């Protein structure tokens, strides 16, 4: 019996994930609503973390070993609207790089699962 390819393999592995992450952050940093979240951030380091995180989410060989997402985004004041906007940009980058709908759906599911730990509660 032949094992089915992981989502990581289906998307094209590490090189494809790096392309998606580069396109994603180009789009995010071009958005005037989102750019302020990244003031003073080491973008090369953040991109490396995002590549490893996305590879991990897709079943790639390296597991994410960075800070817990809630801790990493604590006190940034991320609104639900901005979180949704970032998620849409990630989905767009995936689709623009020919990710299958199974990949897009999996990433969307994970985004919805981690939303409560990233979006700042108001009131």
UniProtKB/TrEMBL annotation:
Cofactor: how bound: Binds 1 heme group per subunit.
Cofactor(s) annotated in UniProt: heme
Top-level taxon: Bacteria
A GO term for molecular function: oxygen binding
Record-linked InterPro entries: Globin-like_sf (IPR009050), Globin/Proto (IPR012292), Hemoglobin_trunc (IPR001486), Hemoglobin_trunc_I (IPR016339)
Binding site for heme: 49, 73
UniProt keywords, alphabetically: Heme, Iron, Metal-binding, Oxygen transport, Transport
Family according to the record: Belongs to the truncated hemoglobin family. Group I subfamily.
Protein name: Group 1 truncated hemoglobin
Native species: Thermostaphylospora chromogena
């Amino acid at each position: 019996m032949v094992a089915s390819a992981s989502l990581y393999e289906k998307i094209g592995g590490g090189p494809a994930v790096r392309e998606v992450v580069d396109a994603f952050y180009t789009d995010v940093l071009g958005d005037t609503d989102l750019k302020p979240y990244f003031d003073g951030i080491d973008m090369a380091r953040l991109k490396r973390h995002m590549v490893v995180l996305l590879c991990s989410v897709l079943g790639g060989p390296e597991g994410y070993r960075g800070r817990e997402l809630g801790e990493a985004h604590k006190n940034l004041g991320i609104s639900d609207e901005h979180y949704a906007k970032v998620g849409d940009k990630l989905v767009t980058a995936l689709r623009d790089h020919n990710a299958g709908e199974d990949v897009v759906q999996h990433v969307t599911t994970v985004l919805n699962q981690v939303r409560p730990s990233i979006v700042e509660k108001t009131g």
